[in-house]
Batch of 4 targets.
Target 1
Amino acid sequence: MPIYKSERLFHFINGLFFTVLSLSMLAPMLHVLAVSLSSNEYVKLNQVFIWPKGFNTSVYQIIFTQAHMWRAMAVTCFITIMGTLAYLFFTSTMAYSLSRSMMPGRKLILKLIIVTFIFSVPLIPKFLVIKNLGMINTYWALILPGAVGAFGVIIMKTFFQGISSELFDAASIDGCSEFGIFARITIPLSLPVFATLGLFHAVGEWNSYFDALIYIRDKQMYPLQIILRGIVQDSQLSLEFDQSQILEHTVESMKSAVIIFATGPIIFVYPFIQKYFVKGATVGSLKE
């Protein structure tokens, strides 16, 4: 089938547009990385753009020796992993129940879920509920409130309904329970949507700081994003590092290094689930 000039022009413009868009998103991160790896004299003169000048890793050596930074990293990892697992479990089980036609009242429940897209929970009632449940200053206050997501329920429900009903019928005839069907058939066939929604939620959990700011009182329990917020927004370097260490480097170098330290781990997760993510993000867009 011949390719017309107009079609080639469209593909060229389309590719050029998304290339420029991708570079515009990547450039700020490269700039931050370059600043964190550059010598002080170049940073002070604003001569660093997207490539390090006077390669220097002393800022990272300081950060890696700070016990409280690693403790905050461990807290963030725990919240992210447990929060994502809870989100996938409760969201998928609700979505599976709503996808089964024999579930009573599923249409009403689905309508109530859709209402949450329009009306979100106000902060004060949410705070009072968490306080009355005794979850203030506990990690449960950061994990359980987001354990079910309306968007995830809708996406998973639609995906589950696309699975052949003959598989469910055959499993039922063989004596498999509903939970067995869900665990042995639905989950293995739904890894792309699990990976996609899990990644979205994990990134949200990793970057979240507001809930910890509201519900966590003990500074020993602070996640990494709270420390990052204090350094970047309030310039609280003196509270996190020794004064002698700060004087050796520019404020921008310290901030940039902390940003890379805080965002690097979640970025490295993506390549390991890329194949599931791409498939899950495009599932349902084409039908044979």
Target 2
Amino acid sequence: MTEPKSLYERIGGADTIARLVAAFYPRVQAHPLLAPLFPEDITPVMEKQRLFLTQFFGGPPLYSQKHGHPMLRARHLPFPITPSRAQAWLSCMAEALDEVGITGPEREEMWGRLVITAHHMINTKEEAHDKE
């Protein structure tokens, strides 16, 4: 009996993760709530995200090998992540998933994990200017 494939394998592995990251970050950079949180040179952020999503969806533990335990919430504490910003992040990710063509049960599984994670990152109360 063969081992069940990981979500990472079912979506197409490294190529799909790279395409997802490439589709996601231009949206983040263009979003008025998200752009201020990111550096002008987004390349290092994209690389970390590629490593993280590979691991997060069941691929090799690339992020941990290079950067240690993800400690997502702790690593994001310096940034004011409001409920509106978490929703904006999810909106950008939904568009990127659409662009890459991830559908069906894999999309649902990915989305569920992404929603939980985005909400876990919220560390700042909503500010009036953050609402769209």
Target 3
Amino acid sequence: MRIGTHQAGPPAPGDRPEDLPVDGVWTNQMPGGWDPLALLAAHGPGALELGTAIVPTYPRHPVALATQALTTQALVGGRLTLGIGPSHAWHVTDQLGLPYTSPAAHTREYLEVLRPLLRGEHVRHGGEHFTVDIRLDQPVEPPPVLLSALGPRMLRVARDLADGVVATWCTPELVEGHLAPALGEGARIVVSAVVVLTDDPDAARAQVEESFGAASRMPAYRALLDRGGLAGVGDTAVVGSEEQVLAQLTRLRDAGATDLVLAVLGPPADRARVHEVADELRG
């Protein structure tokens, strides 16, 4: 199993993920937030995998994203893993003013354009969402592509056109019973987990729900939570003592997660402690 650490923005002075026992650094794009590929490009060459979880497909054209991804791949010495996804209607339509119809079909077509562009192929595509006739001339190794997929239709797109999935707000039961069977053998399953070291797990779950409860009301996450019989995203958090945290992370691994990306809440010392605990699962 590979263990990653979550990077929320530009690193603070002295914040070096290379000093943690991790295999990779992962970042995402929040509405109005930092650009994830630019954040990763700033790392330059090194040893750790650098992943996006995720870059929204809206409003980026697939040619623009392929160009940026290949540029980042060159700058980081071939360490990029590109996670993409269609985001949510409240962002795409309410904030950006773009239509958010048939996101699974839009994503399928997006990948049909993106993947061959990353491989250096000339893409001639005329579809419902994109018309493209171009080849990119950036001679670098194409990055693996993961898809943010939770529902059945998006999981089929991931199975057909991506190297795996990036999932969040996911329990071991959902990984084992929902994600893994839909993807089949060999797919990469990257699970982002919010972790809180605490001697009061109930209070910690309530804290996660208070901080991130808006996600519990987003249709894609709500459908996933309902599938697992969960009240909200707080029920998916990994909370408790070091021993309890290790047991919960182990269950995610045994359920089929190939990677864990840990977002640790609390003081900086807790981040280091959690990664030391998770180091037992690496390899």
Target 4
Amino acid sequence: MGDRFQTIVDLDATATDAEPLARRVLDWLAAEGVVLAERTDCVLGQPLGHLPGPHWERAVTDDWDFEPWDGLAVHTRRTGFTSGADMPGAAVCPHCASATPLDDETRPRFFTAMQTWHDTGTASVDCPACTTPVAVPDWSWDEAPLAFGHLGFEFWNWPDLTEDFRTRLAGQLDGHRTAYVWGDI
């Protein structure tokens, strides 16, 4: 079995918002007993994270068949969150709901915009269907989820997070939109 992750990404947090919102969510998670407040070496690819707390089961589905064995990594800088090795087959416009296949013609335009967003914090792609410029973080993706933001809560090797938990966590984020990205490596 490989490693799995689930990430709740704040799509609206700015670089300035990320740290204070992360502290608020971590305080809430620790108060709920979902994670421990102390940071330790417990997540892949990050120097420190937060171990599962005594009430970690408040965050996951009832039909779990394993306990989490890694922790929570909190990302507070501009990050493109992916589901792993797979890339989506299409980008979906938030204005007209048209799906643009990511083929040899459109893929370079989207990937260039993604890199520009990562480097600068701003980039958009005009929707081929409605011609509206759409900021990279505002696109939706089919098949393999992607999300772009300054704040992400990445749970490593936990049972499936419940929709209720994801909604309650999002409630700590000042009404910001969130995305849920999951995958295996």
